[in-house]
């Protein structure tokens, strides 16, 4: 079993960690890096609760080795907000009750953030299609769609009344 | 988590990758990892060394025209197949099928070379490439060779690739597509197809391939011959397909149901492809 030093910029901060070859990216994030926002829901590449952005693209971090991410930029749910200012998609989930238990939510938020970066004004069909790798057992998905639509209608340069 | 242990090395270029596959103990190629890593978690696969091919995307990803062929690099991801203008215009069956695989996240790691090399019996792309008469360019330690997709596919997760060989690119004849259809039956979101049918019509005739009705994807030879002879095979579909397919009972469906699906989906595909 080889070990490797993995250099990953996580939410803009450089990190360097020694890991085994078999360590998954989600294990690196949740363990040594202490970022427990990313969740392990299934470990079978289905549920999407582990989704993070690798170089801006949504990827299931339970199906990537930490060593594969060496040299990449990773964004987790902890990296969406700007200090105390929630990202539009996070505010949308607050406004439209896009979560209940919250277990799937980090994966949905990161994936939806990537969608809005690519398609700033997605319709419902586009939202549902893009989020097809995120499973939610609580909401029945409609409130997630509403939350993403809210974010599309209230992009970051607007002031939000709390 | 992955309960099995292994070494990891990152390939710097194609020659280094092939050399590593030939010489590193228990070497396995790691591309998108979305077939191999789940299998390692379940102990369905083992590896002594994973050789990471991702740095090779510079040379092995992308779509280009080469004369009357369309050439797709092995590390071209599903998300790229969905949107590349050459694929959407000239190989629309492939662009459409690529979007049906997995989900948004999976399509950003999974790639055509990995799909063909893993050759899962229910995988979408082998049947699609079979319908499109793709040719596979393979690099080994001592030689580069080319084989048809039919020669590549041997059985369920079995290919004609030697241990030191990597798929480099897939070459498609540009026949000009007059009509196409991809019929994919699933019970749930994200499922592998219970059965799928790929159909493409060009000046050269109609090609029909079926997925998950045998140990590997198959062409419906008898049906194609009937179509080429000008007959309208709707009444005889099950009989015409019967020679090509040999489905199994599994948790998803019985062999009988797969036979039924094969005929229904083939009929729909032929109608949709015109």
* CATH topology group of the largest domain in chain B: Uridine Diphospho-n-acetylenolpyruvylglucosamine Reductase, domain 3
The CATH class of the largest domain in chain A, by name, is: Alpha Beta
Per CATH, which architecture of the largest domain in chain B? 2-Layer Sandwich
Largest interface, with Cβ-Cβ < 8 Å?
A: A-B, 30 and 28 residues
Second rung of CATH, namely the architecture of the largest domain in chain A: Roll
Please indicate the percent range of residues of chain B in DSSP E strands (runs of 2 or more).
25-35%
Number of strands of chain B: 14
Structural class of chain B: alpha+beta
For the terminal residues of chain B, how far apart are their CA atoms? Answer: 48 Å
Number of individual domains of chain B: 3
The Cα radius of gyration of chain A reads: 16 Å
Helix content of chain B: 25-40%
Distance between the termini of chain A: 51 Å
Number of domains of chain A: 2
Helix- and strand-based class of chain A? alpha+beta
SS element count, helices of chain B: 12
Strand content of chain A: 15-25%
Number of strands of chain A: 5
Assembly classification: heterodimer
Q: What fold name goes in the CATH topology slot of the largest domain in chain A?
A: Ubiquitin-like (UB roll)
């Amino acid at each position: 079993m080889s070990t490797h030093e993995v250099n990953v910029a996580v939410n803009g901060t450089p990190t360097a960690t020694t890991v085994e070859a078999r360590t998954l990216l989600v294990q690196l994030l949740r363990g040594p890096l202490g970022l427990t926002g990313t969740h392990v829901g299934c470990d079978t590449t289905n549920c999407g609760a582990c989704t993070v952005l690798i170089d801006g693209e949504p990827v299931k971090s339970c199906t990537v080795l930490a060593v594969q991410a060496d040299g990449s930029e990773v964004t987790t749910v902890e990296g969406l907000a700007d200090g105390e200012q929630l990202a539009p998609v996070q505010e949308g989930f607050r406004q439209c009750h896009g979560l209940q238990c919250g277990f799937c939510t980090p994966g949905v938020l990161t994936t939806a953030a990537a969608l809005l970066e690519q398609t700033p004004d997605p319709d419902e069909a586009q939202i549902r299609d893009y989020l097809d790798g995120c499973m939610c057992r609580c909401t029945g998905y409609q409130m997630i769609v509403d939350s993403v639509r809210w974010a599309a209608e209230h992009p970051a340069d607007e002031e939000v009344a709390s | 988590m992955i309960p099995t242990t292994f070494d990891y090395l990152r390939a710097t270029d194609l020659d280094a990758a092939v050399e590593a596959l030939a010489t590193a103990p228990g070497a396995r190629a790691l591309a998108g990892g979305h077939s191999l890593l789940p299998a390692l978690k379940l102990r369905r696969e083992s590896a002594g060394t994973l050789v990471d091919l991702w740095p090779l995307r510079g040379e092995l990803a992308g779509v280009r025209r080469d004369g009357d062929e369309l050439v797709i690099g092995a590390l071209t991801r599903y998300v790229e197949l969905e949107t590349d203008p050459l694929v959407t215009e000239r190989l629309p069956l492939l662009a459409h099928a690529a979007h049906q695989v997995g989900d948004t996240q999976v399509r950003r790691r999974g790639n055509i070379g990995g799909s063909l090399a893993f050759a899962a019996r229910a995988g979408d792309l082998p049947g699609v490439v079979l319908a499109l008469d793709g040719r596979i360019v393979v690099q080994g330690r001592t030689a580069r060779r080319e084989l048809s997709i039919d020669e590549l596919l041997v059985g369920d997760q079995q290919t004609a690739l030697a241990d030191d060989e990597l798929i480099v690119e897939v070459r498609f004849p540009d026949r000009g597509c007059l009509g196409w259809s991809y019929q994919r039956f699933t019970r749930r979101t994200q499922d592998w197809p219970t059965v799928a049918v790929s159909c493409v019509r060009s000046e050269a005739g109609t090609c029909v391939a079926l997925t998950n009705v045998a140990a590997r994807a198959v062409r419906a030879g008898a049906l194609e011959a009937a179509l080429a002879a000008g007959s309208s095979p709707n009444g005889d579909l099950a009989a015409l397909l019967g020679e090509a397919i040999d489905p199994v009972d599994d948790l998803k469906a019985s062999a009988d149901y797969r036979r039924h699906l094969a005929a229904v989906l083939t009929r729909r595909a032929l109608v949709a492809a015109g």
